[in-house]
Each structure stands twice: as C-alpha cells, then as structure tokens.
Design brief:
The structure holds two protein chains of two kinds. Chain A is mainly beta. Chain A has two helices and 14 strands, in the order H-H-E-E-E-E-E-E-E-E-E-E-E-E-E-E. In chain A, strands 1, 2, 3, 4, 5, 6, 7, 8, 9, 10, 11, 12, 13 and 14 form a 14-stranded antiparallel sheet that branches. In chain A, a hairpin with a 2-residue loop joins strand 6 and strand 7. The radius of gyration of chain A is 22 Å and the shape is elongated. The two termini of chain B are 18 Å apart. In chain B, strands 1-2-3-4-5-6-8-9 form an eight-stranded antiparallel barrel. Classes of the chains: A mainly beta, B mainly beta.
Chain lengths: 213, 151
C-alpha cells in the first residue's frame, strides 16, 4: 500500500511546489481592491521634501444623488461621490456655468471612474455630454475619462498592486470661449486596502496610515 | 499515477454549477465540467480528474475560467461516499482587452450519493471547491451530477 501511494504523494508535492511559485492570481482575482465602506479612511503623505503635504480621505455614510445611492469620499474635506455598480465605480459629476451672477447646471450625472475588477491591460472610457441655453446662447459641457490598468506590481507590504492611469478632460464651450481642463492621475490600488499611492499635479502621495473594515 | 488512469476500473463525467461563497464577489454562478477516472484500491479508491469551470462576471465584459488537474480519494462502493481531491489549477481572467492568468493550488472536499445500476453509477455530489495561491483563499460551493461506468 505504501508503494501504491508514492506516485500520488510525489505529484501532490509537485503541485504544491508549482502552485507556491505562482503569481498570486487568486489574490488579484478574489480580493477587494476598492473597499468603500463608511468609516474607512486613508492618510497619505507627499514624497516632496520641500513642500510636504498630508491628504486625508474618508468614506462617509451613503447618500442618494439623482436616485443613485453613492458614498461621499472626502479628500481633505472636499467630497467626491462614488456609486458602486457592476461595471465599476462611477463618480458624480456636475459642471456649472456662471452667467450674470447665476450658476446654471450644464451637465450632471455619473461617469465611470474605475472599471472593475482590475485586470492588467484593461482600457476603459466614458463620457458625459450635455448642453443648455443660457440667455439665448447654447452652452455645451463635456466630461471624458480614459483609463488604463497597467500590469500589476509586486509590493513587499501591499502584495500585488495595480497602477491605473487616468486621463480626465473637462470642457465647457460657450459662444465666445472654450474652457478645457486636462488632468492626468496615476493611482495604485492594493488588495483589501484600496488606494495606496497616487500621483497628480500636486505630486506623489504615499499611504502612511489607514483603517479599512 | 498514469498506470492507475490507464487501467482504471471506473470512468465518468460530471457536470454542475459553482457558486462563489468565499472571495470572487464579482462573479455569477458558473458551470463546471469534469472527466474522471477511478481505480479501486484499499483502503480508499484513487481518482484523477480534469476539471473546467467557467464564470461570467457581474461586469458583463469580465469572465474567469479555471482548468484543473486533480487527484484524490473516494470510496466508490459506499452509498454516501466522501470525496477529496487535490491538484493544480490554471486560472485565467479576462476583461477585454485585459487578460491575466496564473497557477493555484486547488482542492475539493464533499460527498456524493451513489445510485448504482449494474456497472453504471449515477451520483449527485456536493462539494466545497477551494483555490489558493497561499496568500489568498477563495472557494465555491459546487453541486454536480456525475455518471460513471465500470470498465
């Protein structure tokens, strides 16, 4: 009986060895990279030694906007509203046009901010376009998001992290002027933690402390 | 092990559904299909199986496919038989145009209820199917219907 089981034991040992050397595909496939639970918070420090900054992000209790349940995520007190859907995280966007001391809402809605689950090589895009007539003139607004999920990186502390490159363009077209705001952001997401690093116009910010339920 | 498979006493197929219960919160229930061979030994029967499982994601563009080769033990002659299987799984995930794949250690534990008619055996089976990369563990509840024939 002992000799009968020997090949099986060898095969199982080989299986364990090979699987142990794997690239942690289960962690990337099964873990949550975007834990948006009310009460979760993250604190980031900028890498700049000349002008160090601290950014604090916190998930607030759910609210309803445009009949969609979403979570306000405050970044140093400034809220952004994220709704969780099957296709990913959608962000509430509102673009207003000021005319004669009054603000007119030109565009309002939810746009895909991050397609989930995160898979290396995935590209996604979404946009919102709308227009209104203000004092007889048509005002047009457009909000576009382009995203690319880069190949995962192995991190000593966080495990496999995904860098996500986002290109966001916000445009308001009035009869006499066109205003365009382009932003490029790179965000790194880690399993069961969320955003661990981001780079924007203000610099590069690294996670220094966090609480995730 | 190859000799066991080649000169097996029982060969069969199984099909069923897999419901994610640990991890994989972004998947719908998937379909599982496997072919397997068993040989009667003592104290337990040895078995080998080739497994394929397909899941679609809650995100319509997302899908996960899992292919495995597993070896295990069961007790073919028992009416209610325990069934344990271990092996290597290849997991591929796709969110067009992104693709990833990797190896994991797969295992299953469950029971099957054998209904015998001469050399033919039909059995419903209930499994817990687990996969791990030794960093994260995830699992499915599997319900399968199998048909096996003694050769």
């Amino acid at each position: 009986m002992k000799s009968d089981l020997r090949p099986v034991i060898r095969l199982l040992a080989a299986a364990l060895l090979i699987a142990g050397c794997s690239n942690h595909i289960i962690q990337r496939a099964a873990d949550d990279f975007l834990p948006l639970e009310p009460g979760n918070w993250w604190r980031y420090h900028s890498a700049s030694s000349y002008e160090p900054q601290t950014v604090y992000r916190e998930v607030e209790p759910a609210e309803t906007l445009l009949n969609v349940e979403c979570f306000p995520v405050t970044t140093s007190g400034i809220p952004a509203y994220y709704a969780i859907g099957d296709a990913g995280i959608r962000e509430y966007i509102k673009i207003v046009y000021a005319f004669a001391g009054t603000e007119y809402t030109v565009l309002e809605g939810f746009v895909l901010r991050l397609e989930t689950p995160l898979v290396a090589g995935n590209r996604f895009a979404d946009s919102l376009v709308d227009s209104i007539s203000v004092a007889g003139a048509w005002i047009k607004a457009r909000y576009m998001v382009n995203g690319l999920v880069s190949d995962y990186e192995s991190h000593d502390i966080y495990g496999s992290t995904y860098p996500v490159h986002l290109s966001i363009q916000e445009t308001v077209i009035a009869p006499d002027s066109t205003f365009t705001l382009d932003r490029s952001i790179t965000e790194h997401y880690a399993p069961d933690i969320g955003l661990v690093q981001f780079e924007n116009q203000q610099g590069t910010f690294h996670l220094s402390d966090y609480f995730v339920q | 092990m190859l000799c066991y498979v080649l000169f097996c006493l029982t060969a069969g197929i199984e099909g069923g559904v897999h419901q994610p219960i640990i991890g994989f919160n972004d998947l719908h229930p998937g379909v599982a299909f496997c072919i397997h061979a068993e040989t009667a030994t003592r104290p337990a029967d040895l078995q080998a199986e080739l497994l394929a499982v397909f899941h679609e994601g809650l995100n319509r563009g997302y899908s996960v496919a899992l292919y495995g080769i597993r070896f295990g033990i069961t007790k073919n002659r028992w009416l209610i038989a325990p069934d344990i299987r271990l092996g290597i799984d290849y997991l591929g995930r796709e969110l067009d145009p992104g693709r990833e794949s990797g190896l994991a250690f797969g295992y299953a534990a469950g029971i099957r209820f054998a209904i015998r008619r001469e050399l033919l055996m039909i059995y419903p089976a209930l499994f817990y199917e687990g996969v791990t990369d030794f960093k994260t563990h995830a699992g499915f509840l599997g319900i399968r219907l199998g048909v096996a024939h003694e050769i």
